[in-house]
């Protein structure tokens, strides 16, 4: 299996779960861009949100609900940002859909 996130989820690459359930696995980003930077990754391999079908729509929503739950658990009462990077222009570097949860500092807009 060549996908980095699939290997992390199956446990062949060690990682520490921030949250997990039957649909997804969340872990701290190895190169954090904010004091809180968590990746919420579905257990099912879907390359990007552009590859998600209608059968995946509830899962895509679940990933965002999990992000909000993690934000609550980490006390991000001032707010936070959730991001999905897609494809080359979107800056996606790992081709397994994931939601970034970023918090603990003010965010700027527009993103770079
Ligand atoms: P993308 O650029 O695809 O939106 O996000 C991929 C993220 O995965 C990046 O923020 C990157 O720092 C993170 N990442 C890459 N390799 C690893 C790894 O081995 N472990 C963890 N925890 N994060 C990783
Ligand atoms: Zn994968």
How would you describe what is shown here?
It is a single chain. With 112 residues, the chain is an alpha+beta fold. It is built from three helices and five strands, in the order αβββαβαβ. It has a single domain, classed as HIT-like (HIT family, subunit A), CATH 3.30.428. 25% of the residues lie in helices and 22% in strands. A five-stranded antiparallel sheet has the order 1-2-3-5-4, covered by helices on one side. The longest helix is centred in the middle third of the chain and has 17 residues. The structure holds guanosine-5'-monophosphate and zinc ion (ZN). The site of guanosine-5'-monophosphate (5GP) has 13 residues, from β2. The site of zinc ion has 5 residues, from α1.
Secondary-structure topology with pairs:
Blueprint: H1 4-10, E1 17-20, E2 24-28, E3 36-42, H2 57-73, E4 80-83, H3 87-90, E5 99-103
Antiparallel strand pairs: 1-2, 2-3, 3-5, 4-5
CATH architecture classification: 2-Layer Sandwich
Integer tally of domains: 1
Helix/strand class: alpha+beta
The CATH topology name reads: HIT family, subunit A
- For the record, the CATH class is Alpha Beta
What's the total count of β strands?
5
The helix/strand series, from N terminus to C terminus, equals HEEEHEHE
The distinct bound ligands, ions and cofactors come out as:
guanosine-5'-monophosphate, zinc ion
Helical percentage: 25-40%
Mean pLDDT: 97
* Global shape: globular
| Beta-strand content | 15-25%
Major sheet characteristics = 5 strands, antiparallel
Uncertain parts: none
Whole-angstrom Rg: 14 Å
The side-by-side strand order for the widest beta sheet comes to: 1-2-3-5-4
Distance between the ends: 32 Å
CATH superfamily: HIT-like
């Amino acid at each position: 299996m060549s996908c980095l996130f699939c290997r992390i989820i199956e446990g062949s690459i060690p990682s520490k779960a921030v949250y997990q359930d039957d649909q997804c696995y969340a872990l701290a980003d190895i190169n954090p861009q904010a004091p809180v930077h968590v990746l919420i990754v579905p257990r099912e391999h879907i390359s990007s949100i552009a590859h998600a079908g209608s059968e995946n729509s509830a899962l895509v929503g679940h990933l965002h609900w999990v992000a909000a739950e993690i934000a609550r658990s980490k006390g991000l009462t001032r707010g936070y940002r959730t991001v999905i990077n897609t494809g080359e222009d979107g800056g996606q570097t790992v081709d397994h859909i994931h939601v970034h949860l970023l918090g603990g500092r003010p965010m700027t807009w527009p993103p770079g």
